[in-house]
Amino acid sequence: MEAEATGFVEDQGRIAGVRLADGREIRADKLVLMADGRGSLVRKLNMLAVNQLGAPMDVFWFHLPKAPHDGEVLRGAIDTGHMAILIDRRDYWQAAFLIPKGSAEEVKARGMGWLRDQFAALFPELDLSGGLGSTDDLFLLSVALDRLECWHRPGLLAIGDAAHAMSPIGGIGINLAIQDAVAAANALAAPLAGGEHVDSILQRVQKRREWPTRVIQRGQKLAQDNIIGAVLSGRPITRAPWPVRMLDRFPLLRRVPGRIIGLGVRRERVESPKV
Ligand SMILES: Cc1cc2nc3c(=O)[nH]c(=O)nc-3n(C[C@H](O)[C@H](O)[C@H](O)COP(=O)(O)OP(=O)(O)OC[C@H]3O[C@@H](n4cnc5c(N)ncnc54)[C@H](O)[C@@H]3O)c2cc1C
What we know:
Elements: E1 5-11, E2 14-20, E3 25-27, E4 32-34, H1 41-44, E5 50-52, E6 57-65, E7 74-79, E8 82-88, E9 92-100, H2 104-110, H3 112-122, E10 139-142, E11 146-148, E12 152-153, E13 156-158, H4 173-193, H5 202-232, H6 242-249, H7 255-263
Parallel strand pairs: 4-13
Antiparallel strand pairs: 1-2, 2-3, 5-11, 6-9, 6-10, 7-8, 8-9, 12-13
Helix pairs in contact: 4-5
The structure holds flavin-adenine dinucleotide.
Flavin-adenine dinucleotide is lined by residues 4-5, 35-37, 39, 41, 59, 141, 143, 160-162, 166, 168, 171-175, 177.
């Protein structure tokens, strides 16, 4: 815990452990499981090839004060060129302001007055006094959408964002990461407990989890390209995309995205035996 891995220990072409920032080595004779997110060491050290799917936006996160009468659980607002979301955290709003990819410094240079004006226009009912004081309060999250071509090599398996960086769209990346972990446990726990070498079965985890990842990333890419990219580029949206119009017209259909977001497209249940 609280130890940064900065490199790998290799033994005759196999990954055999990690090297820590303080110089120590931790050895793993069977498997190093990389669950270290979008900035994974396997990416930093170019150990496994990454396919970029592209993301048109980055996100500034910050807190906004919330009045008791503000109500509602989640709010979003779109205007030509701008998009923002407020998540209810009971005593404050967690605010996300979407900006075109790579434009963080330009947006900061416009100043907090400019940002306050955008929020006042998007959410006219909000009382913004006491919020948006300094650019130091803005936390930049760089959005990525990509996946590794191969999630493993001898001695190492990547899961979660390390294997497939997810966009925030749908708030579904954590579900996928946990489902990967369950699938990995189902495939590997018993052989590892029995002292077996697992290199030859690592591809089973990718085989099981790659399809749901592709489906969800495809949905995120469609939303990025047709809605978010279009809004942030400043093109006026005169008509909602057809899937959105269908959801609007047939309320029962709204259960479908709810189900996909909540449960995923391939559900995982813990099946590995207690060891
Ligand atoms: C702006 C934004 C908003 C998002 N919002 C949502 C949301 O609302 N809901 C949702 O489901 N998904 C959301 N996502 C996606 C979600 O964050 C990821 O898909 C999910 O966190 C992936 O989980 P993970 O465990 O694979 O990686 P992470 O959650 O990134 O965890 C990786 C862990 O590894 C640690 N680590 C990294 N490098 C090292 C190292 N070298 N040594 C030791 N430890 C290390 C990190 O400290 C971290 O604890 C969002 C993504 C973005 C960019």
